[in-house]
Amino acid sequence: RLKPASQRCPAQTVMLCASMVTSLLGVATSQQVGYTHGEQHPGITLKHCTLEEGCRLEQQEVTLDAQWRWLHDGQENNYHSCYQGDTWEPLHCLDPEKCATECMMEGVSLEDYDKTYGVTGIAGGLRLSYVSAGSYGSRLYVLDGGNQYKMWKLKNREFTFDVDVSSLTCGLNGALYFVEMRADGGYGQGDNKVGASFGSGYCDAQCPHDLKFIEGEANVLNWHVEKVGPVGKYGYCCAELDIWEANRESTAYTAHPCTIDGQEKCFGERCGDTPDLCDCCEQDFCPCCMRYRGVCDKDGCDFNPFRMGGKTFYGFGPEFGVDTSKPITVVTQFLTTDGTDEGDLSEIRRLYVQDGKVINNSISSVTFDKADSIKDDFCQDQKVIFNNTDHFAKNGGLKRMGEAMDRGLVLVLSLWDDPLSQMDWLDAAVGDGKLDVNRPGVLRGRCPQDSGDPQVLRKSRRNAYVTFGNISYGEISATFGPNAQRIIYPALASLPILLVATSGFAFATVLFLWVAICRRERVLQTGNGSRNLPDSEDGKPLVLKNADGSSEAKERHPMAREAILVSAGGYQRSQDLGAWPSFRRRFMSLLGGRADK
To answer: Which pTM was predicted?
Structure first.
């Protein structure tokens, strides 16, 4: 996610407090499946929309990121944590492979999602609480069937959701974004036996070093604590598309392309790592800065209305164009050069809907083209005006971002704070006070620089939360407005199949009764009882009893199947009954009633 150049990645921030309850329990990630707690997944309702049909409901689940989970050894009834506080337990975790083999990760029950991690279900979505019994914030992924992440391919498509950030003050971030994780969560890589179901395999464009496991090995080498929190030797890079990073004071959406396909376990320059003592990345010449030598664009190309000159467009209260004191519908459109799925990504457009009104995005007053969306030309202008390194264009720009979208991205929902920069890159002035706030691009929002301290927020904003709901995707202009109100429920969606199946069953039932009646009619009712008539294929004569008791042999009539029994010892062919009367008489006869009623 977007940060000033002198800062490290947001994924390196510690969303869990070192002293929280779960650290006492040894919460962390592992690569072996534990057997103490079964894994459960909260449900979430998605909508897949087309202009022709409306929106079809889709039931999916979410899973908690592996970073939050309890990690222990395999000694039953005598567990030892593999990770305590900020430190790996040396008995099992001095060696990356041994740690991944011997440590087990436990599942999370629905009750723990709620009480321990603050993740609760709401109508059509989820509520993520900032402070809960066992964590500060959370990170979740949308699954597709439980064992795989849902892979989203949104080029030439539209993505819409409802969000409530009314309680998120300065320094907090309720984020919804996509990253190019593996669909299986890295299952089978090294000693990874947990996969997507347990939330493994996270990566992003910041090449985070705080991940405890990368590709089936523990990231224990050179594990140490920095200002950002505990980090290891290796980072994990992949493309990132930030749809929504926001609190009630500021918002941004950002594209972060990478030169790699998929993921890369990185070290040093490939990660874009900059030494802690290097503080000149914002300057024109900084030989120690490797931020712009990595495989991913950490800055990205962003559209932050406040940063782009729209100081009154977004904020808390009725005086703003988008009022964050109320829920907001956020619409993002991914347009291509030729309007087809095969075209190159050319524009990322943003709309808002509030109180039944569609609100166009803020218009930039600082770039040459007065843009209101992300295009390559806008990104180039932005870098020039803000005097930022154009790593976005170097990494392929929107075309390269679109290629990652073609491969498929994983949807992430999160709520977090930022010990490193206190979220200044989103809602305040960047540069730790070293940059002139009058310089274009330095101010990202109206928040004071000292307002995002997590140690303060975790005490003063304990009741903060974000909600995400009504997540919809589909054709351009299909996910909001009147079209999105046309809902196809799962039961109705299967109605055509149900009708076909029901019709087939009804036909089979009628056919069965018809055959049964025809077999029934061969039984002649007599005073002494009845007997079975010979099969129609046996060629034997049909013997009937006359009224006087004598027998008479008659050849079976070729239409004998249409005959009806009229009296004991009597037999005649049906005459002028029509299909329905004939069937009714036969049916009543089968039930033992009178056929002539």
So the answer is: 0.78
